[in-house]
Amino acid sequence: MKHATTGAPRALVFGEALVDVIDGTAFPGGSPLNVAVGLSRLGVATTLATRFGDDAHGAQIADHLRASDVSFAEPVPGAETSRAEVTLDATGQAQYRFVLDSELPATPLDGIGLVHTGSLGAVLTPGAATVAAAFDDPGSRLRSYDPNIRPDLMKDHGATLDQVERLAARSHIVKMSDEDAEWLYPGQDLDAVLARMVALGASLAVVTRGAAGCIARFADSGAAAPADRVAVVDTVGAGDSFMAALLAAVLDGPLAASLLAGDPPAPHDVEHALQFAARAAGITASRAGANPPWTRELAGEAHGEPATFPATS
Hints:
This protein has 11 helices and 13 strands. It has helices at residues 31-41, 56-67, 120-123, 127-136, 157-169, 178-184, 190-200, 238-252, 255-261, 267-285, 295-298; strands spanning 11-14, 18-22, 25-29, 46-49, 71-72, 82-88, 94-99, 114-118, 142-146, 173-177, 204-208, 214-218, 221-225. Helix 1 (31-41) packs across helix 8 (238-252), helix 5 packs across helix 7 (190-200) and helix 8 runs antiparallel to helix 10 (267-285). The longest helix has 19 residues, at 267-285. The two termini are 26 Å apart. InterPro entries: Carboh/pur_kinase_PfkB_CS, PfkB_Carbo_kinase, PfkB_dom, Ribokinase-like.
């Protein structure tokens, strides 16, 4: 990626910043935070519109964001920083229990070329209203969304589906996992879910499928990319790394102009972006925790561990 992180922010991410507590150890996390860090590490100047406290966990988050050159508002004095208590199953898949502050700060959109949101901050009150206002803004900028469903906190399926579809309809890019798709649309095949996102208004819809790679739909065409071949340590943050790298690839090439103009993107451009995103997700899955790659790693200087499973897409 060519973008420099100096100067005015080019990307604005709305959503939660929290700590993932794994075996008693806290790691900075939250899907929107991970995407913001991933974007910045790939050279996209990024601001995270979030809220966290001035406690020890908040200090940890602030240090993490500064280390990746992500801009953010000052911690809130006296507020408790959100946390997710994470357990890993035998395959390294993560399960979460949350303590969450869902308020988000309204943030000016001047000079922003991309607005992204996802997960809890996009649908839980009061932060959801802040996100909706940003996505309803008529300015000419890309909008992207990752539902990143958390069933424990999104208990009303119908209400959540309404919110997800409202944001999807206002987004140029929608990405979700196959697990998200099954929760939102039980029993429907992934092609039907992608078609639904495009029918709602998304210019590019993507579903990730873990080791089976990813598939996408846009206009009357489709594309796919295999998963990168890595030895999986855990999957924490892998989907967020995919999202960040996909957005970075869009901003760095011709896709941004096509999506903004409403023109059908070229299939080879979409395939290139998906491959780039899959490689980023693979690097993250090859190491512990939500640790998105830097540009130098995606250039091949540090590319994970030897392969242990084949791509099937």
